[in-house]
Amino acid sequence: MKIKILGCSGNFVGKHRTTAFLINDSFLIDAGTVTEAISRRGLKKIKQILISHTHIDHVKGLFPLVDELVMMGDYSIELISVPQILEIITKNLLNNLIWPDFTVIPSASKAVIRPRGIPMEELTGLGQVSVKPVLMTHTVYTVGFVVREGERGFMFTSDTGPTKRFWEVASEEKEIEFIMADVSFPDRLADLATISGHMTPSMLMEHIDRYDLGSRFFYVTHIKPVFAREILEEIKASGRRNIGILRQGETLVV
Length: 254
Ligand SMILES: [Zn+2]
Ligand SMILES: [Zn+2]
What we know:
Elements: E1 2-7, E2 20-23, E3 27-29, H1 40-45, E4 48-50, H2 56-59, H3 62-72, E5 77-81, H4 83-92, E6 113-117, E7 124-126, E8 129-135, E9 143-149, E10 152-156, H5 165-172, E11 178-182, H6 190-195, H7 201-210, E12 217-221, H8 228-238, E13 243-245, E14 251-253
Parallel strand pairs: 3-4, 4-5, 5-6, 10-11, 11-12, 12-13
Antiparallel strand pairs: 1-2, 1-14, 2-3, 7-8, 8-9, 9-10
């Protein structure tokens, strides 16, 4: 499985782009960054988009993408998540007020967006990859994921504060290669992290220890650009060699 990191920042500012991971050129996890990072030829290869939650930094790329696909002709994508999240998107974003309802454009039978609900905590096969959503602790309804191709795979917290179930699942998932985890704020802003549903480096480390995940590798993601240096220093100072920083533009292979 080839995972291209189109964006992994906690805000879109300057060169920093927000969460979107392109798997095997055709399966997108979150849509924070799409048309600004993928050529027109590449856009046509995207067949499925999996959404973790409806915050704008995770969905904004969806809107120019579907607009582009409609204009290019006969293309459509599956928009995949748990039903609760799909409903927020169709009611609040694709509602003909914020953006046209592309679930019936250009026609109901040939719509460019085809929503597809998947069940919580079940592994669902979606073509090349299989996905298991897990409920997270964020300010809106949010799921993290186990993503697998065959036996190999990884986990992604999406946006989350301190939480329980995801880490229990992580300790059961012995075969996964790494876990991408939200660390948005430095330790001195632990209160802000908690009320906004994110983590600091120490919070992540506490979970790693509590759930006995010290043998796993972690990629920190969703860093707020303004705190990047501070967060980096805190991780370095911890001396933990199993925590790295996810980099925009890199491609991971599992
Ligand atoms: Zn969020
Ligand atoms: Zn976010």
